Amino acid sequence: MEKKSEISIVLSGAAGQGIQAVEHILTRVAKDSGFHVFATKEYMSRVRGGNNSTEIRISSQPVKAYVDRIDILVPLNDNAIERLRSRITDETLILGEKRYVEKEKNSIGLMLEEIAESFGNKIYENSVAIGVLAGIINADENALVNNIRAYFLKKSEEVVKANINAALKGYEIGKSLGLKFEITPSEEVKKQYLLNGSEAVAKGAIAGGCNFISSYPMSPATTVFTELSRLSRQHGILVDQAEDEIAAANMAIAAWYAGARAMVSTSGGGFALMTEAISLSGMIETPIVVHLGQRPGPATGLPTRTEQGDLNLVLYAGHGDFPRIIYAPGNLCEAYELGARAFNMADKYQVPVFVLTDQYFLDSFYNVDEMPQAKIERYIIKTDENYKRYALTDDGISPRGIPGYGKGLVRVDSDEHDEYGHITESAEVRRKMVEKRLKKMEKILQDAVPPKLFGSEDYKYLIVTWGSTQLIVREALERLGKKDVAMLHFSQVYPVPPIAENYFKKAEKIIFLEQNAIGQFANLIKLTFDGVDTRRRILKYDGFPFSVEQVVEAISKEVE
Amino acid sequence: MSSAFDPKIYDIPDADIAWCPGCGNFGIINELKTALAQLQLDPTQVVLVSGIGQAAKMPQYVKANMFNGLHGRSLPAAVAIKMVNPNLVVIAESGDGCTYGEGGNHFIHTIRKNPDITNIVHDNQIYGLTKGQASPTTARGQVTTLQFDGVMVDPFNPIAVAVALDASFVARSFSGNFQLTVELIKMAIKHKGYALIDILQPCVTFNKVNTYQWYRENTYLLPDSYDPTDRQAAFKIATDNSKLALGVIYVNPNKPVYEEQLAPYENDKTPVALRGLEV
Fold first, then answer.
1. Where is the Pyruvate ferredoxin oxidoreductase beta subunit C-terminal domain (chain B) (predicted)?
2. Cys-Cys crosslink for B46: which of A122, A450, B54, B64, Cβ 3.0 to 4.6 Å?
3. Model pTM greater than 0.90?
């Protein structure tokens, strides 16, 4: 029997049963053993009960995407299997508490509770399960002990010891099962970090000098808010949980006005309340950075699921004409870089800047190297007596001062205004100011992040993606192994980088792949470039991420 | 106290003032400039934050820093500015519609936060900018340009709400009383924490009920013997609408100031705004 160098483990159970604890510990045990790890979770919108699952891929090779395949399914209660039935194949081994799995034909039933009780308490059963899984993948025993210890650090020594012993018993069992997985460790991976999308966005923001966040909690974007709050003391970040998203957005803009580098973190429904503030940012040329973690709408939609459905929302948010920048990172490194870049560009151009992610992206993690150095670019000037906040300049950018820094007065006005910021109804001034604001777009375009081409330069078929689908489609294309299929990924979706047109022109057939029902980005491309055929679209909008297998199948239908 | 500045230093000479002749806002703008001058505040250290409405145009005509934002949103903006640079004197200034209507939620939660800002509300009990509709403080039964059969809801009581929320400084004034208003604005600015001054002011164009004469007949000055730290007494004053009390109605000197509790200021009082800048 050939040994497999990769395993896909899925844990399934009710909210509150400790799936997240198992995920947290097992992924770290695997990483510290030198194995590549990817994990993502899907959960229901409830605090207790229901049915949630986590997928953990552990491999000899880098793994960074969601697959349908389940090698080992671990149900944590008696109804944890049914919902995943469509993903269970003859190859799937179902492993867990005997009474939950005994009806399944390909299963291994263990007395996890009984083992846990032998160490003093039934609640140690998850530690036993972690041990079993660690044994199956032949993880490093020290990594197992250290991570169990670290997780239960705040508990009594007695509890720590009991959990370690329970895990070691499981480890022994796991090893004795003789399953066909052999994952090769790498020293390099041991030195790496496990990071999820939320942490990458938050750390990127900090690297870009973020020192103010005002937000109202909303899934899935709360995690970025939480991360910045957790790090507020360490990095000098002002944190405000606002009464509503309207306040949050207005605060962030006023914070920039006063000299901070501010952001809000929200989702579509919360952002809907911020649209008035986006227009304010456009008019007073005072920046705002918006992290928007997308989830399916309309309205409350599917609160805990994933979608790429809010591109149009941020593209068209705010009445009137003014420039903006929209980023959509495709991997953790891009999330970090663009998280930082958002602040630099916001400061440079005095416009709203968006970072679009989604539930899948924010809740997924894999092992990464140290993030690259991001530098903080500041553009604040010290004012003099004759300072004019909206001085007309060749490139449309007026030097930005802040109140109390220099001898000048900083006067911003949401009404149309003259160079001093005074309200005006002069048609001539109005015309000049509209043109001034829009003129900034010329330089913004020069600073555009170009799309990345993956695969052969000599392509016939071009798969176009943006945001969180990058790594899923990359893995799918590797599996397809077709020389004439390439992928063009956009991490800046607006303004569309002009260079993109060259890639489109070269393709015989262009296929857009998006997680929304209408192909919002394809429509934007159609508006941007004449003559690009945007009719072929692979769309998914059921709230679950694309899997590698689904993408392989969908692309296979489009390419010969 | 040493000599005051000349209030003229806050003048904007060529300002095209949009208020009607006789508007209560003319009284308030002079009272504000006089208070700033008496406190010797440099215009570069003052930020006037406003929303939208006739009252919200005030910063347009006062030489200081200005953040003239959106309708109802002066308070969130003011809180953020104070958080980022506590050295600034931050004054949020708007009308009754802007502050108590569109911005009602912000009014409640800003009081809870207790940032060290001054909130001046020009309360003319009517919507002026949009031409005469009822505001949150218009009396029940009053006929307006929109409420043809008279207003059908009870007015919002900002003073009672502020006392109920344990605001740290609550005062009411009348734009026609120059000395009192100047004093109250000065006290509010000097007060550490959130300070509300609801300034009653006539709208000579759209409110023919609450006129200068009406305010003179329906207000009274709180006596010197009144103790503003007595919350129960303050409630009584705040909920007695037979005559409207003028003066400092309630003070809670023991409330922690919001921005002072924030992590970045724990060991370093340098405003976040100025960190990393050449000072």
1. 203-266
2. B64
3. yes
Q: Determine the pLDDT at residue A59.
A: 98
The size of the A-B interface in CB pairs under 8 A is 166
Question: Cβ of A212 under 8 Å from any chain B Cβ?
Answer: yes
Q: Please list every residue in chain A whose beta carbon sits closer than 8 Å to the beta carbon of residue B63.
A: 409
Alpha-carbon gap, residue B183 to B205, rounded angstroms: 28
Mean pLDDT (chain B) is 97
Q: Which residues contact A388 (CB under 8 A, 6 or more apart)?
A: A398, A419, A420, A421
Per DSSP, the residues of A510-540 read EEEEESSSS-HHHHHHHHHSTT-----EEE-
Q: Three-class SS of residue B13?
A: coil
Of the candidates B41, B60, B80, the residue with the CA atom closest to the CA atom of residue B188: B41
Q: What does the DSSP assignment read for A356-410?
A: EEEHHHHH-EEEEPPPPP------B--B-TT--TT---TTSPPPBP-TTSBSS--
DSSP secondary-structure letter at B103?
T
Strand B244-251 and strand A509-514: pairing? unpaired
Q: Which residues neighbour A230 within 8 Å (Cβ) at sequence distance 6 or greater?
A: none
| CA B81, chain centre distance (Å) | 17
Only one residue has tokens 């910045």, namely A228
pLDDT band (50, 70, 90) for residue A215: very high
pLDDT band at A48, cuts 50/70/90?
confident
Is the Cβ of A407 closer than 8 Å to some Cβ of chain B? yes
DSSP code for B264 = G
Closest C-alpha to B33, from B4, B74, B2, B67: B4
> How many alpha carbons fall within 13 Å on the CB side of residue B133?
7
Helix/strand/coil for A413: strand
Q: Which two tokens stand for residue B42?
A: 């440099």
Taking alpha carbons only, the member of A509, A473, A506 closest to residue A489 is: A473
Coil, helix or strand at residue B134: coil
**Which chain B residues contact residue A252 at CB under 8 A?**
80
Q: Where are the beta strands (DSSP E) in A267-308?
A: 288-294
Residue B279 pLDDT more than 90? no
**What are A134-144's pLDDT values in tens digits?**
999 999 999 99
Where does residue A386 rank: exposed (0-12), middle (13-18), buried (19+ CB within 10 A)? Answer: exposed
Q: Which of B66, B73, B273 sits opposite A412 (nearest CB)?
A: B66
Does A214 sit within 8 Å of B88, measured CB to CB? Answer: no
SS3 content of chain A, % helix, strand, coil (to 5): 40, 20, 40
Do residue A254 and residue B69 have CB atoms under 8 angstroms apart? yes
Mean pLDDT for all residues in chain A: 97
In which band, very low, low, confident or very high, does the pLDDT at A1 lie, cut at 50, 70 and 90?
low
What the block records as the tokens of B25 is 């806002």
The pLDDT assigned to B175 comes to 98
For residue range A148-191, what is the model confidence (pLDDT) as tens digits? 999 999 999 999 999 999 999 999 999 999 999 999 999 999 99
Query: φ and ψ at B236, to 5 degrees?
Result: -60, -45
Q: Does A381 touch chain B (CB under 8 A)?
A: no
What are the DSSP calls for A56-104, one per residue? EEEESS---S--S--SEEEESSTTTTGGGGGG--TTPEEEEEHHHHTTS
| B237's tokens | 């004053």
Report CA torsion sign: A152, A156, A161, A163.
negative
- For residue B276, CA distances in Å to A211, A378, B97 come to 12, 9, 40
Distance, in Å, from the CA atom of A549 to the CA atom of A89, rounded to the nearest integer, reads 14
Output the DSSP codes for A217-255: --TTTHHHHHHHHHTHHHHT-EEEE-SSHHHHHHHHHHH
Q: Report the alpha-carbon angle A257-A262-A263, nearest 5.
A: 135
* Sign of the CA dihedral running A436, A440, A443, A445: negative
A267 has pLDDT over 90 = yes
